[in-house]
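pasting for ref. prot 1 ->
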Amino acid sequence: MENMVDKKNTCIQNFILYSQAWVEVKKQNRCIIFLFPWNLIFIFPIICRYIIRIDDLQMETGLWMNIQCAFPDNNKSSRIIVTTTNDKLAQICSLNCRVLRMQPLDMGSAHALLERELPVVHRCPTNLNQSLEMILKSCECHPLAIVNMACHIRETGNRWEWDHDKCEQACNGIGSGLVNGTGAFVGMSQVLNRTYSSVNYNTMTCLLSLSTYPKNHVIKRKSLIRRWLAERLITCKDKRSGEDILNECFTNLVEHNFIIPVKISISGEVKAFRVHQMMLQFIKAKANSENFVTWIHIHEGQEKEQVNNICRLYIHNSSPKDPSIGNKTELSRVRSLTFSGLASKTLMNFKDFKLLRVLDLECCENLKNANLDTICRSSMLKYISIRGNEGVSKLPPSIVKLQYLETLDIRETKVDILAMEVIKLPQLAHLFGEFQIPSELSNLETLFTNNISNLHTLVGFCIDESPAVVKLLPLMLKLMKVKILCRQTTPRSEVIEEDLLLSLKSCFQRKLSAPNLSLGSLCIDFSDVRDLDFLHRLEEPSFLHSLKLRGKFSEKSRGLPRFILLSDNLKELHLSGTNLGCSVLSLIQGLQNLQFLKLTEDISITEAGEIICECGWFVSLKRLCFDVPVLPKIVIREKAMESLKSLQLFCIVLGGFSGITHLLHLEELVLPSNVTGPEADDLALQVSRHPMRPKFDRPLGDPGRSIGSKRMLTRKNGFQTLKLGKTS
């Protein structure tokens, strides 16, 4: 009798929760219709096997909780399928199953869909394939975009002949339709406007700023955030730093699928990305309507009309002659300038840019030293990037006038000597390049003992040609990230190595009190120039959370330096060309907080035998990457690497990998497609039997590449993602 009462109460509770969930879902009109007698509603979730699909769920976690309670686990293989564009919500809904990401159509299916939606009368008899390909590239093979574009072409009727030029015009001129929801793009407009309106004001502002980049341009995340900081793009209303808020905004852009990650670091962070072409059209139209960005494209023989009230300016120059953007164009209020195309001394006369804060000259064509002569006339500059311009070999001496400069990026240029005066700039926080700083120690000691330096990031100084800087590392009290290089042209100096050891010891022992900051990221890149044996004399524990070592340890000093094993805060470790191989796993398995590990070895290193990962190894490890020529057999015991989510096996020869099913949280396994044989087949079989059904990615392999070369993961995402939530 008591069981009957309990069952009745459970049915009533389920009915109440089900009714609440049904009302909320019905309001959204995002649920399929269930056909069953109403008098079975009390016992339906208990005795019946069910499948429910909720499409395009937004941030309504209360609705999801009600659905979960109304449809509990009944051990009948029931399913609840949820689609959403929000990654964070997908993680909430997924619980004990994997999140599935919807991909765009393949080119064949996209081509077939476009031809089906497009009547023959609208097809151009000439250049048909080129026109269709242009449309598909513009839509990036997304079904809704293809259907809307075909509808847009159909609406024109026979009023104009669909030639290649008008096809290009149609692809490039849909921004206003996407924003206003007019014409054929009502469907795409609803999706984009709803997603755009769902984010906060700061995230909207950051999204609009991406309209300054051309289509298919790959944008680097960290450079972008430093640029946002320099421009003071967002408002800080709480006690958090601007960098924290901007990182949160960037995370929102990723979670809402506004951008496509292109390069993923070993830590799982997005290193570089691009904007969806449809989304770029949308935000450009938004930015234009709000006067957020001004675009000026200069072609040969073109006269540009007067433009006023410019805050953010993007200039693309295609004219080989020395063009002008007009004498009456008001430039004094420009705060951000992005330049691309052919360098021009006339266009790069910065004397009129009185309030300029951000100057981006990355990867210009034919940029020379002379083009930078007037760069220092904009005294308010906070951010300068001339990255990727090999024609630049030196900076103008007057750069010392930029007293507000915070970021200077000279990577991938020929600038190999940096004047001491640059280090003296009082606000300089981030310095990037590959340079030497020839200076007397006494000249720099005065600077740092007076606590003038604001350097947070010092990436790329050469140890042999900058002995004074090595000794001054402990005096850079705000230094958080440093990268030390070694050139191949200089002889070995034990004195400098000893100075480096003493400096690192002092940095590790630095007292963490204002204004001091801890050294959190260290990269030592000696490549094949010399060994890293001297690091064995460094035995002090550190506060490092990221460590990257590139260089060999000799056979006499096998093993890792003691300071690594004592770094309890270490979260990311990258060992490249150390000559230690995969056997290093047994040495570092006890690092309790290690989350990301990448092991890279040279082609000359081969390994045999078997590595057994025992119970309790790598308790916090989430991502593990091997980039080696020959991967020895690895055995995963039960309760080893319990937190591992991503396993990447870049190798030429696979020695075998067993125990995949013991990795209970595994979400993806990467193995190049050129790795074949019984070991690869066995690995695929283990993945298919895994309870989490992890993604088995087989990217194209490159058998001829040099093992140990820089490698990033590539990922393509669609506008919308499919999330699977399983209740039983």
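and prot 2 ->
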Amino acid sequence: MVVGVPSPVTMVDEDMHVCEVPIFNNQISNESIPTSFCSTIPTLESLPILSTELPIHKSTKSLNNIDDLPFELLTGEEYIDHANDLTDGIIYLTSYRLFIFTNESSCSFINCPLRLIDLIEMKDNIYLYIQCKDMRSFRLTFFTTDKCTYWLRKLTELISIPINLEDLFAMKYALLKPNQERSLRDRFHNEFIRLQLDSYPWRLTEINRNYELCTSYPEFCVVPRTITDEEISEVAKFRSYRRFPTIVWRHSNGAVIARTSQPEVGWLFWRSKEDEKMIQAIINACHPTTADTLPRETGSNRLLILDARSYTAAIANRAKGGGFEYPPYYTDCDVQFMNLPNIHAIRKSAQMLRVAIANAAQSENWLSQLESTRWLHNLSALIGAASFVVANVHKHSRPVLVHCSDGWDRTPQITALAEIMLDSYYRTIEGFQILVQREWIAFGHKFGERCGHGVGANDPNERSPVFLQWLDCVYQLFIQYPIAFEFNEMFLLKLAMHTYTCLYGTFLCNTDYERTIAKLETRTLSIWSLLNIKSTEFNNHLFDEKNKESSS
């Protein structure tokens, strides 16, 4: 053993990369904190200098053997550097993580995947203030300015936006390991059968095979049987990014949840006969007995178009060629605006929340500061929008069509949350995976841009914790209905963290089309492999097994 290098930390499995590692020094907070899962983090002034109570390592020794590392390297992980440059700790750097070992006797350490780092700032020329995408913050204090500058440059280089997918660690981690994405995708067809979307009056269209019609949609979509593929092609031309209306869930009473993007009506209220016909076909398919007999002035026979934006925002989008469904053209529909904030407001809210968490221990008016972030207000609004969908579908048997502007941020938040409320299958571990894979991944939520790890994702205005916010909403439901979910909060924590770590290929790229081109199914490992293998660790022991027996 090399002098100055602490003894290896004992790890029980290869998932030691998680940030929920134990911290025995009470000055260091190493909790992974996706919003409401949080514990307090010290203020900047009191952020740990990696424990002044611990013995200071004065000498720097070389690492002669990889086995001398205080952790086990993952498959594909490469050692880069280490040093005793911290005032009272040792810093290690690999191609995947930043690891700080603070004390040999207590085994206190911080283990932070590099892609989890959101921002690094140099303060007072001797310490680095590191903020993570999961709301953690910590401080590293160095002996000299030169050392601090060196590590700032080194870390900044490693967390920079990737130029190629090969720059992401997931491409190296999956060696000799099978991927389960394909088997999961194959289960989509079984899901269509379970929801009775494989038979009249619905059909599975292959118009988007090879992503020829819409690159941000899945290859197979459910549409009314009375609508031809030629008409779908015309509808796609009228919808933003060609994201035409498609069915994602069906209630036993016949009502459905559909999703799309905004219509491109512009200032002149352009219209599409094919689009209007398709909306009408959805209504008729949900209520075939009244399709040609009863007027739809009120009630369950009318389709609810739920626009996640505010009315003002929807009007403003007309200047860009977008807009919303013009009521005189869609006579059997009602349009309801939900006034949900856009990605920029959510990003600002999350940044304010991180500051509030950092000041929690010292602030006397912390609750007021928390309220000013509007994070909880936004959660409430989102859950309210999903509840509105549930009430209309379940109580009033009304079909609901959900969209925002482009249909890949607020739209999956609403549809996926509503489906969790309506369908007990999605509250199981297997069902939740199907839900995330379909509503978020297959339907093109831009994980690469929103999480900041996409190739060429240099625009900070495109980053926003949309998926993290949705997971927080799921957690809120879990807290209110603890026996209704098969998985526990650790399941959500793992999923939230690995959205950013780039250890798995599940959340890489922006669309399934990009993932197919990159062949990620065979080149990376799926996050579901971890969650399935360790399913007992993520089981909610309060779960009522009766919830598996029925849906809606």
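The chain has three domains: 14-160, 162-194+446-552, 195-341+389-422.
The longest strand covers residues 79-86.
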